[in-house]
Structure formats: structure tokens, C-alpha cells
Amino acid sequence: MTDASSLTTEALAAIGRAPSEDDLARIDQEYLGRKNGQVSRLLSNIAQLLPAEKASLGKAANEAKRAIEAALAARRAELETARLADLAETEAIDITFPGPPPERGHIHVLTQVRRQIETVLESLGYQVELGPEVETEWYNFEALNIAEGHPARENWDSFYFSKELLLRAHTSPVQIRAMQRIKEPPIYIITPGRCYRRDPPEATRLPYFSQVEGLAVDKGLTVGDMKGTLLYMIQSLYGRDRKVRVRPSYFPFTEPSFEFDVSCGICGGIGCKSCRHKGWLEVGGCGMVHPQVLRSGGIDPTQWNGYAWGFGIERMAMLKHDVDDIRLFYESDLRFLEQF
Ligand SMILES: [Zn+2]
Predict the structure, then answer these.
(1) Distance 306 CA to ligand 1 centre (A)
(2) How far is the CA of 282 from the centre of ligand 1 (A)?
(3) 115-159, pLDDT tens digit by residue?
(4) Domain limits at 275?
(5) How remote is the CA of residue 315 from the centroid of ligand 1, in Å?
(6) CATH at 237
(7) Structural domain contains residue 98
(8) 123, 146, 263, 293: which has the fewest C-beta neighbours closer than 10 Å?
(9) How far is the CA of 326 from the centre of ligand 1 (A)?
(10) Nearest 5°: phi and psi at 123?
């Protein structure tokens, strides 16, 4: 029969080696279990013993029980300390560790193109002028030599708030406001901004779009000055190999009036599918400022003259990046926008 002291030695050794709480529970059961625990079994034959032996065996069994209980408690505490230390190691939050970088957007392609145009013209001494998008009929039409009943008004089918107020159909009203404000030429301004016309959205036009117009008022300006300015602008934006041409046209606010084209960047002017075999791409309109328009701005046309031009920023961006549908610029599709 195993004696109490060797049982204790054996149990303590097992406890010391136990790698986990589960193992300790198993050892607890094995030695101290009430029915089949080794310490309990030690006492199973006690009935046949002499009274003196009973007492000493009982005492030894109790001592073994206490020693094993104490060892179990100590080992449990040890394992718990190790578990917490391990947890501190593996689940610690390192607040100095850099987080995932936030995604950065970039400037919209239309804003990029507008800023490029502004930069080029500012380098020639032009200043940016802004004006209201809700205009009076007078600034939007009359001041620009488009009287009521003028057939050209059909080209600017507009959104009206009342008989007098409308969303501007072009940025030309800003030219009048600038002349009235500056008063004394020389005046060299550009007027970037949003315009509105009652056109259904399609691949080449939208009911809202952005324009940049330029106005120069000085002494003795010529069509050559105007064409030189347009050529410098186009070559700065599209490259030195591009050419500019002007074709006679009609606008109420300029006389003479022209359309201006840029040579096709794909075929170099020979003609290709992109330019519909013309070799040229239409950009905008231009001309020498009509004397009536100078008068609307408070400028004496016998003393001063001027030239002006205008085009859509979307159109410039389409030409620059070979985009064939203007609606893409406003659909906010990141797959499209991220290309620029
Ligand atoms: Zn071409």
C-alpha cells in the first residue's frame, strides 16, 4: 500500500510539471477526488486497523491533503501570472504604430484645366474677374448688343426666375461689370465661371457648363493681337506644335466675329477620324468688341477698342484628354476621374 508521504511527493511533482489549469483539475481529481482519489483510498481500509494506526494514518492523510491543496493553489497562481504576462505581450496595443494612410483625392479635371488656363493668361497680365450667376436681362442680353426680339437670343435659351432675372447664359455679363468697375482702360481680364442654358444633356452639351472669356480693352488693338494671344494660350496648354486659325462668323457683341479652331493633335492637321478628317477642332468664338458693348461698359469707343474670346472649359478638357462625352465630367465616377 502506498504511504501518504510518497503519495504527496508524487502529487507535488505532477503539480509542479502541470502545464495548464486543465491538468491541475485532473490532478486534483486524481488525488483528492472524494470517491476514487488516491488520498481517500488511503483511508479505505482504515476499519481493519488498530486505533493507534487509525489515528496516525488519518493524520498523515490530512497532511497529504493539505500539502496537495497548497501546491495546487500555488501552481494555479503561477499559471495565471504567466497567462496574464503572455496576454500583455500578445494583445498589447502599440499606440506608436502608424495607422493605415487615409485615401487622398485630387483636384477635379475641370478645375485642373481651368487653373491651367488662368495661369497661362495671368502670365500675360490678365486678371481673373468673377460675377453673379443670377443676372438681370440687361447684363445678360441688352448690354451685349442683344436687344429684345433680336433673333440671336434664340442661341441663348435661358432659365428665368422672373421677367427680369435669369441664370446667366454666358460669362459675358462679367465683361460689362468689369468695364463698369475698372472704368479706365487698359483692361485685361478673364472671366471663368458656370453658365446655364436650356439644352437637354447629350454627349456634346449640358444645361450647365463652365466658360472662360477674355476681354482686352486698350488703344489700337488688332485681330492680330487677339490671334497671337489665342495661339500663345493654345500652345501653352496643348504643346508648341499646335496651330490656331480663325474663321469669319457672327456674334452680336463682336464685329468682326470669328470662330477659332486648333489643329488636330492626333493627325497634326492632315485629317483623321478624331477631327472628322478636317484637320481642325472647333474651340470657341472671338472677335473685336462691338462699340455698343464698350458703351454699355462705360468705355468711349472713339478712344479705345478691344477684342474678346470665349470657350467652354469642358470643351478644352475634352480636347486635351480625348474625352468624347461631356457628361462624364459630372457623373462623379471615380473610375473616370482617377485617370487625371
Ligand atoms: Zn485629326
Answers:
(1) 33
(2) 12
(3) 999 999 999 999 999 999 999 999 999 999 998 888 777 778 899
(4) 109-337
(5) 16
(6) 3.30.930.10
(7) no
(8) 123
(9) 19
(10) -65, -20
Q: pLDDT per position in the chain (340 positions), as tens? A: 468 888 899 999 999 999 999 999 999 999 988 888 888 888 777 778 888 888 888 888 889 999 999 999 999 999 999 999 998 888 888 888 888 888 888 999 999 999 999 999 999 999 999 999 999 999 999 999 998 888 777 778 899 999 899 999 999 999 999 999 999 999 999 999 999 999 899 998 899 999 999 999 999 999 999 999 999 999 999 999 999 999 999 999 999 999 999 999 888 889 998 888 999 999 999 999 999 999 999 999 999 999 999 999 999 999 888 898 999 999 999 999 999 9
In the numeric block, which cell numbers belong to residue 15?
503539480
The DSSP secondary-structure symbol of 160 reads B
Does the predicted TM-score (pTM) go above 0.85? no
| Cα 262 to ligand 1 centroid, rounded to whole Å | 10
Same domain, 121 and 229: yes
CA of 176 to the centre of ligand 1 (A): 37
Length of the chain: 340
| Cβ burial 291-318 (10 Å sphere, 16+ → b, else e) | bbbbebbebebeebbbbbbbbbbbbbbb
Same domain (yes/no): 266, 231: yes
Same domain, 143 and 262: yes
Is the same domain home to 327 and 278? yes
Strand partners, 271: none
Centre of ligand 1 from the C-alpha of residue 263, in Å: 8
Distance 210 CA to ligand 1 centre (A): 25
For ligand 1, the distance from its centroid to the CA atom of residue 220, given in whole angstroms, is 36
**Interatomic CA distance for residues 306 and 198, integer angstroms:** 30
Domain count, the chain: 2
Question: Does 118 reside within a domain?
Answer: yes
Q: 339 C-alpha vs ligand 1 centroid, how far in Å? A: 23
